[in-house]
Amino acid sequence: MTSDGEQIENPRWYRAEQKCLRVLQCRLARRTRFARNWYQAVQALQSQHQHIANRRKDFLNNLANDLTVRYDRIAVEDLRIANIVHSIYDSV
User: In total, how many domains does the chain have?
Assistant: First the structure.
């Protein structure tokens, strides 16, 4: 969330690609372990996971680039939710 109140939604790449991962995982489970086709299925599954990771990384890089172009200074705040909850209940 920016100081202007703009909230950037999480695109949830993993959820979008979950159906393809499920198919590849089932395909891997049906193969004989350490056979040639098993290695090919492992390669396909690894490739899909890499594809999801690359999409996440690309989104974050594009977002960071967009924010640095629009604003002069960027600060990241690491909130400790447990401390906030304790301070709310302590004040009551």
Answer: 1
